[in-house]
Amino acid sequence: MKLDMSLSKELIHKAKQNVAGGTSSTMRLPTYHLPLVIKRADGVRVWDADDNELIDMNMGYGPLIFGHRSPIVVDAINKEMELRGTILGFVHELSFQVAELIKKSIPSIELLRFSSSGTEVGQTAVRLARAYTKRSHIVIFEGHYHGSSDAVFHKYHAQLKDIEDVDIIDTLPGCEGMGGAPRNVYRIPWNNFEVLEKVFKEKGETIAAVIMEPVMGNAGVIPPVPRFLSKVRDITKEYNSLLIFDEIITGFRVARGGAQERYGVQSDLTMISKAMNGGVPISAIGGRREIMELLVEGRVFHGGVASGNPMCLAATLAVQKEYEKKGEEIYISLEDKSNMLRDGIIEIFNRLEVPVIVQDVGAMISMAFVESKDIKRFENYRDIKRWSNTNKYIKFQHELQCEGVYIHPNHFEPWYLSTSHSYPIIEDILDKIEKVGRRINWNDKELNM
Ligand SMILES: Cc1ncc(COP(=O)(O)O)c(C=O)c1O
Description:
Layout: H1 6-18, E1 38-42, E2 45-48, E3 53-56, H2 71-83, H3 93-105, E4 111-115, H4 118-133, E5 137-141, H5 160-163, E6 185-188, H6 193-203, E7 207-212, H7 228-238, E8 242-247, H8 258-263, E9 269-272, E10 283-287, H9 289-296, H10 310-326, H11 328-351, E11 356-361, E12 364-369, H12 381-387, H13 390-403, E13 405-406, E14 415-416, H14 423-439
Parallel strand pairs: 3-13, 5-6, 5-7, 7-8, 8-9
Antiparallel strand pairs: 1-2, 2-3, 4-10, 9-10, 11-12, 12-14
Helix pairs in contact: 2-10, 3-10, 4-9, 6-7, 11-14, 13-14
The protein binds pyridoxal-5'-phosphate (PLP).
């Protein structure tokens, strides 16, 4: 099926004359992305330059938990514009009001600081851990992404040939120009406690922290295997290392208190953003008081002109108050709709005899096409890299976009639900998935190369 995308195509061409690659994030326009320039957004829907209407399942890569242009966020910003404006450069009460509500949801956070992006708080988390423990090294997992700072940006989507024969890799820079960073990193496979134990036995005295997405969301959705998080918690305590949960995606999404609430394991430091704020550029790093106090003492520096600005904090306060008011209701409903979507997708492709793997935790889902029904689950990055068929996923995404549903064409990107995805919308998405599933010739040679 073909849609008219000519205006989008033309605008992208124009954009490329002035903006490197036509966009300000490399993930947004990979070569295999169909032309798509959005001119309007509302709730679950976006409209492109050619007036095609799409149900959005990307939701700004996760933050838009109440949908596009949610009145919760927009009204709060408008009100704040009449009071303090965008950036203030002074202390104001919104910061401790928001901090209080966040602490109520995530009890492991005793003190916190606000920043503007996940990248910034990832860098600060690593600095805090090294300064607190007076140790050099960080343990990172394959497939996990913690922002693009030199502290942690590794080749998280490495080629299999570069990782397959080794369990512990010292460094794998994420891109050129990093001068050898990230430095002092041990990189290991996710969900493999034996390798983690090995790295601690061999190098424990050097390990400042283990950093992880407690539910991996940057190589599809890969939950921790049973007891993995608690074992990591135990071993980090045993060796006096810190545990950093990067809950940029999972915080306020897989439960109000994030993965740490869902799995009952607390971290020493936590990074949060996305669903914390409903779609404004603000993040936070928080954790045990004695670690966070290194910032107070000035032993570790953290700043930022836009850090804790009133515009973003006003929106975040409104979002946090909504969580406070609606409590569990939001998460029960999100989870129910997410289960409906997951079960529906599995049922459709079972009927079509097209093997797929669908994995989800709360309102984050991912799917991948695999070659055989014998493949049942992905437990780490190597599994998904080895077994998933990206050609089929890209074809499926292109057809689905033409049918009126947008998912990101990279199968590593989860699908995100928002409260504005109603039951009839989930039904509509499933109908469209079925149509597309029937239309594609899954035996096409090109899809199976
Ligand atoms: C788990 C995780 N950590 C950190 C980041 C970096 O956040 P930002 O893009 O705001 O720097 C992301 C971004 O998607 C993320 O998914």
